Amino acid sequence: VTGGLAPSPIVPTVDFQADGVQHGFLRLPHSRDDSAWGAVMIPITVVRNGDGPAALLTGGNHGDEYEGPIALFKLARTLRAEDIRGRVIIVPAMNYPAFRAGRRTSPIDDRNLNRIFPGHPDGSPSERIADYFERYLVPLADVVLDYHSGGKTLDFIPLAAVHELEDAEQQRRSLAALEAFNAPYSLLMREIDARGMYDTAVEAQGKVFVTTELGGAGSASARSVGIAERGVRNLLIHAEILQGEISHRPTRWLHMPDGCFVISEDEGLLEIAVDLGEPVRAGQVVGRIYPIARTGCATVDYRAPLGGVLMSRHVPGLIQTGDCLAVVAVECDPPSF
Ligand SMILES: [Zn+2]
Predict the structure, then answer these.
(1) Cα–Cα distance for residue pair 305/205, rounded to 1 Å
(2) How far is the CA of 64 from the centre of ligand 1 (A)?
(3) What phi and psi values does residue 164 have, to the nearest 5 degrees?
(4) So what's the pLDDT on residue 191?
(5) Range 288-292, long-range pairs (CB < 8 A, 24+ positions)
(6) How far is the CA of 302 from the centre of ligand 1 (A)?
(7) CA of 105 to the centre of ligand 1 (A)
(8) Which residues contact 150 (CB under 8 A, 6 or more apart)?
(9) Does residue 1 surpass a pLDDT of 70?
């Protein structure tokens, strides 16, 4: 525990050093009207078989994204200690209050867990969760997988991603883990704003970090869940925690050049003009926004800023000013690592 900060108020009901399979909770005290000495109980599974590498697997960082929680609740139920060496820590729903509410952000403090790292032990419930991961769980891990999807307002082609990193060796290890995850698309990712993200916090600790965007629209499909399950199994084999053969399928490598985001400057009814995964030319119309106050108004056309493939799109039928309407990614050669 570092930083001269107070100890976390979160108490685990599992022993991270014990061998075997343990299902328990991260118990976060949360005194409130309906439970005076109550707690938020965040489910956690620890599977350990002696010394060895450790993986930290998380979903529900945003509470309305479902491939991660499905794959991880399933893995927690089925992974046996004798199948692994080292340790696997599974938290299917990191921001558990948000997950219970089906919301991106926590209904307790309205915080977006993925924008408040490193968090604080004396902060709001979401900040306390962030602090616990930052100072207690991430340091236990060699490789960290954090599942995301688009949530209720975005949808993605099924991709796994790592960030562009300054440390060449960490970049190499991250790309190797990304290739092992083996989603249909593998992305070298750029964030709109990386500050406060779990991703950034994990990378700053020198860990191998893989994230995903496997779908979205507030649900999950059989296909996207299958990709999530195959990916985590592949990653655990790659990390030499799980025995077996990595299942390889073709992946298409993408990157995100400057200006790849299409941001709405209008509000109204969105007609998406290109579907996810389809090729787009620079200047091609990707969406039209209809003003909805009256009929007879001109639509506003939104065009692809560059040629590539439609990686992400806005989901709700109505769109607001400032919403991300679409993202165009560019296919590239597999990086060498
Ligand atoms: Zn997310």
Answers:
(1) 35
(2) 8
(3) -70, 125
(4) 79
(5) 289/264, 289/319, 291/266, 292/268, 292/318
(6) 25
(7) 10
(8) 65, 156, 213, 215, 216, 217, 312, 315
(9) no
The alpha carbon of 110 and the centre of ligand 1 are apart by a number of angstroms equal to 15
Quote the mean pLDDT of the chain.
Answer: 96
Around Cβ 294, how many Cβ atoms within 10 Å?
6
Residue 4's pLDDT is 85
Alpha carbons 188 and 163: distance in angstroms, whole number: 6
- For residue range 61-117, what is the model confidence (pLDDT) as tens digits? 999 999 999 999 999 999 999 999 999 999 999 999 999 999 999 999 999 999 999
How many whole angstroms from 65 Cα to the centroid of ligand 1? 6
Q: How far is ligand 1, taken at its centre, from the CA of residue 81, in Å? A: 30
Q: Does the predicted TM-score (pTM) go above 0.90?
A: yes
Residue type, 179: E
pLDDT band at 40 (very low <50, low <70, confident <90, very high): very high
5-11 LR contacts (CB < 8 Å, sep 24+) = 5/120, 5/121, 5/131, 5/135, 6/121, 6/122, 7/121, 8/121, 8/128, 8/131, 8/132, 8/135, 8/136, 9/121, 9/128, 10/128, 10/129, 10/132, 10/136
Compute the distance from residue 74 Cα to the ligand 1 centre, in Å: 20
Give distance in angstroms: CA of 197 to centre of ligand 1. 10
d(CA 150, ligand 1 centre) in Å: 6
Query: Ligand 1 center to residue 319 CA distance, Å?
Result: 19
pLDDT digits (tens, 9 = 90+) for 228-256: 999 999 999 999 999 999 999 999 999 99
Instruction: Give just the sign of the alpha carbon dihedral 63, 68, 74, 78.
Output: negative
Give the span between the Cα atoms of 112 and 61, in whole angstroms. 8
Q: What does the pLDDT read at residue 190?
A: 80
Distance 205 CA to ligand 1 centre (A): 21
